[in-house]
Amino acid sequence: MPSLFSLYRKIFFGRKPGWDGQPLPGIQVSCDKVAISAASVSQYANVCGYSFDGEQLPMTYMHVLVFRLQALIFTHPAITFPLLGMIHLRNRITSYRQLKVDEIFRIECALAGSEETETGLTFDLFSKVWVGEELVWESVSTYLYRIEKPGKRSRPPKGDNMAWENPQQWQLSEDLGRRYAKASGDYNLIHLHPVLSKRFGFDRVLVHGMWSKARCIAAMNEEIGDRPVEVDVTFKLPLFMPADVTFCAIDQPESAGKRFELRDGRGRRPHLTGSVRYLN
């Protein structure tokens, strides 16, 4: 796997002028014979609220490895804008079976497709994980490179019409971003310190989107069990730290899956909306 030190040296000190107005090229990278450290998984699980038994990987852990290949793509000369400050809009993970810490993986990641929107340039990164010839895990992440444009402001999103009864209450400390960055390798500056996040227009540090997703899945992990599953989330309003948040999940009809949301402490403003779909 690419060295995080080498990648961040290029990301922090490399000079990229910004998007050149051209569609993004197709770029694909891969890495074979990837092994996992149980100590690294344990640190990640502890930050995200999973119970790690020393064998079975948390569903979202593979994103930690996938992120390295995504960062490698962003150092490509054809990508003319910086990774720092980019916004994660959506993530869908499909887990075809329970993965174990002692397995050896092959990981592929590809950038395919970009679109200019009112808020900037959006694009998708597709990732696949294999054990031998078996596809065991895949994901799609949608990112936004923000471009300031004149125009009307969009209305803040509202929560879903799901019943919001007896939600779980979580308190997020100001150092959560730094702890997650250490466990995951995602050192985007908007998550680390207020002085750094202000460079990108944020008064306080933001929670990592993939921490929010991981924490929600951890809260539903006993019910999901080891079933093949697809978990799709959309990141809504920025979640600043420290914060009090609420989480609630409800079953879909005929046990097809679940709907869930992460909202502010009063249960009004959504930070994340998502769905769980069982594949069998």
From TrEMBL:
SUPFAM superfamilies: Thioesterase/thiol ester dehydrase-isomerase. It comes from the Bacteria. It comes from Shewanella submarina. Residues 168-245 form the MaoC-like domain. It holds the Pfam family MaoC_dehydratas. The lineage of its organism: Bacteria, Pseudomonadati, Pseudomonadota, Gammaproteobacteria, Alteromonadales. This is MaoC family dehydratase.
